[in-house]
Write a sequence for this structure.
């Protein structure tokens, strides 16, 4: 009998607590509409403008190689027009002009690499970690190719007189081979990079975490998830840790922005 009374009292107490919790407002003040919050937080997709730099650099590189081939055919490999070439270049040797243009092209490639690094770092802060990692090595290849080409040109130019004594115009042929191979390698890298950037801009996707939420909706039973933030057999531990650090950094920035927007909207509705 006592046990029944105790159970009844406990049931009445839990009912009263539930009713009191439901009756008491959890938030004092005006509620924020979901559509207003979504429209305030949703960011407009920003395209990556570096593809135009890659295309422009490709055109300049092709023009440089064309000038080198023309100078080699007219001024270096034949002795009939050497004086005319020197006069047309205001007393400057054609080989000196080629080297100066090569140095100027390397400076342009260096500036392009810095510009790409700046835009990709901003893209990483906006949460596009997958594309950032996909192009992490590709964006540095043009500068490495041009630097290696400069080193090879110096190796050929330094003993050019000795090479030409053994085989006539051997240094010229080697120089043209280096320049053409450098053009081919740089052309492939820049065109592949430009294609990836164009594809990224065309897709206009949201941040990686938003796309994962949209496609997988945090389903525990989904076995085809592509985030792979945990440690897997055969995966690199350093890469996993770096991925986690990038995601945590983005989520911290996103939460900070979200909190500021919520406070702004709450203050605006309170004034209204």
């Amino acid at each position: 009998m006592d046990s029944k009374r105790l159970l009844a009292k406990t049931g009445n107490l839990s009912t009263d607590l539930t009713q009191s919790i439901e009756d008491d407002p959890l938030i004092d003040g005006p509620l924020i509409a979901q559509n207003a919050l979504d429209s305030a937080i949703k960011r407009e997709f920003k395209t990556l403008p570096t593809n135009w730099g890659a295309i422009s650099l490709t055109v300049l590189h092709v023009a440089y190689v064309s000038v080198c081939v023309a100078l080699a055919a007219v001024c270096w490999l034949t002795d009939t027009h050497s004086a005319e070439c020197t006069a047309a270049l205001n007393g400057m040797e054609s080989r000196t002009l080629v080297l100066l243009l090569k140095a100027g092209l390397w400076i342009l490639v260096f500036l392009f690499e810095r510009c790409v690094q700046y835009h990709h770092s901003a893209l990483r802060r906006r949460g596009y970690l997958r594309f950032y990692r996909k192009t992490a090595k590709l964006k540095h290849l043009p500068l490495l190719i041009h630097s290696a080409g400069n080193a090879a040109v110096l190796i050929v130019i330094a003993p050019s007189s000795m090479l030409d004594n053994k085989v006539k115009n051997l240094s010229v042929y080697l120089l043209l081979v280096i320049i053409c191979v450098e053009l081919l390698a740089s052309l492939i890298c820049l065109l592949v990079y430009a294609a990836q950037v164009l594809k990224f801009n065309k897709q206009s996707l949201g941040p990686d975490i938003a796309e994962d939420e949209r496609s997988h909706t945090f389903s525990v039973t989904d076995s085809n998830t592509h985030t792979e933030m945990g440690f897997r057999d055969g995966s690199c531990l350093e890469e996993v840790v770096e991925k986690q650090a990038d995601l945590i950094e983005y989520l911290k920035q996103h939460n900070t922005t979200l909190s500021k927007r919520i406070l702004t909207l709450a203050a605006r509705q309170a004034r209204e």
Notes: Residues 6-11, 13-32, 36-41, 220-231 have pLDDT under 50 and may be disordered.
